[in-house]
TrEMBL record:
Cited CDD domains: GT4_PimA-like (cd03801)
UniProt lineage: unclassified sequences, metagenomes, ecological metagenomes
Residue ranges of every copy of the Glycosyl transferase family domain listed in the record: 1-180
InterPro entries, per the entry: Glyco_trans_1 (IPR001296), Glycosyltransferase_grp1 (IPR050194)
Protein name: Glycosyl transferase family 1 domain-containing protein
Classification via Gene3D superfamilies: Glycogen Phosphorylase B
UniProt-listed Pfam families: Glycos_transf_1 (PF00534)
Leader sequence residues: none
GO molecular function per UniProt: glycosyltransferase activity
SUPFAM superfamilies: UDP-Glycosyltransferase/glycogen phosphorylase
Amino acid sequence: LFVGRPGWRKNIELLIGAFKILTDKRNDVALFLHMDFYDPCAEFNIFKLLYSYGIPRELICRFVGFKWHTGIPKQMMSLLYNVADIYISTHGGEGFGLPAAEAMATEVPGVMTNCTTTPEFYQDEDGEWVRGFGANVSKQIKDHNVMRPFVDINDFVEKVETLLDDESLRKEMGKKGRAWVVKNASIPVITRKWKRLFKKIDVNKARII
């Protein structure tokens, strides 16, 4: 499962390339791309990208007619996460990574590029991967005036297969992931943090921008 818009920072071409490697090696995988294939922010034509890799249409799942600016009911979103085995993302950097946190809340472990917020989500205080895996970065280039990491596809695929082939590991990481979200990123926790922040603001000096 991947959830997100197909902008340049998501490196969708690498995600689909990794899935192609998986389908060449095994016949027990399908990829749900929860995105608008006609999204104006897409760096590539998603249909042409899938065709160029020769990925069978029946292995790609999506909500036909979904539009990036409308969304879907939260009950449907919850169902989507709950039927997934693994959340995957070849992103080139996340400010936070809400879909990954949502997946963790439903006890779904993931594999993402090991950069920006991925270690915070998936590693413990000792740097061990306990709630998911971070795949190595193979190279970085300057793009849109920022450094854009590219995941090592082979390492990414290897870590995805590790989770696919070990149900007990998926369950263990999933439970730890949910516990982390409840403790660090649940609505009550975030609400308390905002309240503490607002209480520190001097209303006589604050300026609205």
